[in-house]
Specification:
Its EC number is 1.3.98.3. This protein is α/β, with parallel strands linked by helices and 460 residues long. The chain is built from 18 helices and 20 strands.
Length: 460
């Protein structure tokens, strides 16, 4: 099992800069509009030739109210009827997508995200899952990893029962913070009782795992106030936690303009919250999977990390690296064959393209051999905190030390600061360096000079 991280505030301040989260490599910044439907179809053919299971993602963009911190692609509305034409469009896209893939490829993973997926009515959710089962080979024995993002304000025990009936066995609960002052400042009024009722219902219905999402760095948060929320969450004993660093980017995300920057905790306070959070969670028995994810030692994520099979994709850390990802809905990102692709981001364009019988692809990227090599390097580092360069060299047919000679030289500051140890072609990220793992990965990213730091959040 990985040793617990060591918190060094001075080093963290020194390495705190903007950088990718590496849910993909190359990152979405490199996607371009030269990637079109014909290329996607070619990549689906490559995927079919390789075979293997699939992962499906559905983006449900609707939210009843806006959370001011949110950076997701969403449509804020109280008009539930807006879901009807959108679902009709999703069904059109699903039919187009399903026709590209060999029938019978099992769906090992399925995820509904948003927005708020439970904005849909129970009947609409049943219809969406039924249509999915007609087009794709869903697993009916409860062995797939079928997950959904839940806003506890938009769900109750009845909702949870419907989701379990449909085959969902994992859920992620959005909490962010239980403190009333913080909730008021970010326009997310959500009681502890609401949250725990959904969590308890998930357990009663036999969900395999429940994750809780928290955010630190929100207005009016202090170390003590955040630990009060954290202690309540620990008492509820979720299987996983995601503790995200709030990235205040009001020029990019309009809802964040409603947050008063003067109310945000100072950088030193944020670091203290992070340090206290890591100490409290590891003391409670959780394992730091990487970056901002924690899990119980018996959770599949922790097991995959110990076994060296952990993976990272657009949903974060994952356990099914072998799955091509087919994503549907506005702004959804697919990973098929040797490509990434993203759908258009607005409802009207999405509707018009599907009405014309076209896949609603806006941009994408075909990865080259160098991209695949660097993706493997970054994945090993960000998932397992170590890299066997000889194994990578043998796998890709390259002399590792020669190919990455410049990158290895750039690791010198990390080595000098005790963040990384290099022994021959083996790279190990030490406990004090694990919180700076994004910085270590950036050393191997050949696109950073062209991407520009302004496109990314701070690494810590």
């Amino acid at each position: 099992m990985q040793a617990n991280p060591i918190f060094d505030a001075d080093l963290i301040r020194r390495y705190d800069k903007a950088g990718p989260r590496y849910t993909s490599y190359p990152t979405a910044v490199q996607f371009h509009d030269g990637f079109d439907e014909s290329e996607y179809r070619r990549q689906a053919t490559i995927s079919n030739a390789r075979g293997g299971p699939l992962s499906l993602y559905f983006h449900i963009p609707f939210c009843d109210t806006v959370c001011y911190y949110c950076a997701c692609n969403k449509v804020v509305t109280k008009v539930r009827a807006k879901a009807v034409p959108y679902l009709d469009d999703v069904y059109r896209e699903m039919a187009l997508q399903a026709a590209l893939f060999e029938p019978g490829r099992p769906v090992e993973q399925l995820h509904w995200g948003g927005g708020t997926p439970t904005f849909l009515s129970p009947d609409q959710m049943r219809e969406l899952m039924a249509r999915t089962g007609r087009h794709f080979a869903l697993k009916t024995d409860d062995t797939g990893e079928y997950s959904i993002e839940i806003d506890p304000r938009e769900a109750d025990a009845g909702t949870v029962a419907v989701l379990r009936e449909l085959g969902f066995n994992r859920m992620s609960l959005g909490v962010q913070d239980f403190d009333p002052t913080v909730q008021q400042a970010v326009n997310r009024i959500q009681s502890e009782a609401q949250t725990l009722a959904v969590l308890q219902a998930a357990r009663a219905e036999g969900f395999h795992g429940v994750s809780v999402d928290l955010i630190y760095g929100l207005p009016f948060q202090t170390v003590d106030s955040f630990l009060r929320t954290l202690d309540r969450v620990i008492d509820a004993s979720p299987d996983r936690l995601s503790v995200f660093n709030y990235a205040h980017l009001p020029t990019r995300f309009m809802p964040q303009r409603r947050i008063n920057a003067d109310d945000l905790p100072a950088p030193a306070v944020k670091l203290s919250i992070l340090e206290a959070t890591i100490e409290r969670l590891t003391s409670a028995g959780y394992v730091l999977i990487g970056m901002d994810h924690f899990a119980k030692p018996e959770d599949p994520l922790a097991i995959a990390q110990r076994e060296g099979s952990l993976y990272r994709n657009f949903q974060g850390y994952a356990t099914h690296a072998e799955c091509d990802l087919v994503a549907m809905g506005v702004s959804a990102i697919s990973q098929v064959g040797d490509s990434f692709s993203q759908n258009v981001k607005d409802l009207e364009t999405y509707r018009l393209m599907l009405a014309e019988g076209r896949l609603p692809i806006e941009r994408g990227l075909v990865v080259n051999d160098d991209d695949k090599l660097r993706r493997a390097v970054i994945t090993e580092l960000i998932c397992h905190f170590e890299l066997d360069g000889d194994a990578i060299g043998e796998r890709f047919g390259i002399p590792f030390a020669d190919y990455f000679s410049t990158e290895l030289e750039h690791l010198a500051p990390f080595i000098d600061d005790g963040l990384v140890r290099v022994d021959g072609n083996r790279i190990q990220v030490l406990p004090v360096g694990r919180l700076m793992i994004r910085n270590v990965c950036m050393t191997f990213d050949r696109y950073l000079d062209t991407a520009g730091e302004r496109r990314f959040s701070r690494t810590l």
